[in-house]
Specification:
Elements (H helix, E strand, L loop, with lengths): L2 E6 L6 H18 L3 E3 L11 H7 L7 H13 L3 E8 L7 E8 L5 E6 L5 E3 L6 E3 L4 E2 L8 E3 L2 E5 L8 H9 L4 E3 L6 H19 L2 E4 L3 E3 L5 E3 L3 E3 L5 E4 L17 E6 L2 H10 L13
Length: 286
Amino acid sequence: MVLAAIGQICSSASMVHNLTQCQNLALKAVAAGAKALFLPEASDYIASSAAESVELCQDVSKSPFVRGLQKTAKEHALPINVGIHEPTEPPSNRIRNTLIWIDKDGNVANRYQKLHLFDLDLRPNGPRLKESDSTEPGNEVVPPYHTTLGKIGSLICFDLRFPEPALRLRRLGADVLLYPSAFTVPTGKLHWEILLRSRAIETQCWVIAAAQCGTHNGKRVSYGDTIAITPNGQIAGRLDRVENIEDEKEQAREPELLVVDIDLDSIKQVRHSIPLQRRLDVYPEV
């Protein structure tokens, strides 16, 4: 049995508050016997504007949020996977949306930068939400890395809408795909579950999606529905979600934890029973 703990939080602009949420979940994960904790996209903070997001961003060596989680990981020998913001190199008016793996010794051992950014502009009659206003896109699919939960491939939120990077990670040997997110409520209701299950089925990988949930500020509400999906596309466990934005309270939701047994043998069974022989001579770019 290899237990994964998957956290659901509601980040604000306060890194102190967000760190406390994540550390509390880490303690619960340790008590449950989990071998790793997976946290959502932008766990360090969610700002109310692009300018505030850039202002809050700190290098991992100085970030009290990251340093706090490194200390927690080392004290409890608990690897922690978490979505954060990092400055660009050289510093600019944009930042990086990244996913880091903090190993059991407290070291940042792996890093992935979000490839696909959520750019929406439906003016004059609809909203405008352009992630690229403040965020620099990544430019590579980072190979999977070895853990006690198998080989993990990292992707983030809007990457979910594109099968190509998931298929690439599968070709590189991934057993588990990560999609930490802060999905909007309307798109979450329409596409969240079906896209996650699709990525699991087509890659025959476990899918772990830690999600932000609830009201972050006066402008942002995240869908939630933290979920784990088997390599056969079945839901192994899930947490609460936002059903109606109008019903959400102004204060943030309490953090929640989902613990799931990542059965590595199920990967071999599914891939043996439904062999997928890809015609890479026809589409080698995948």
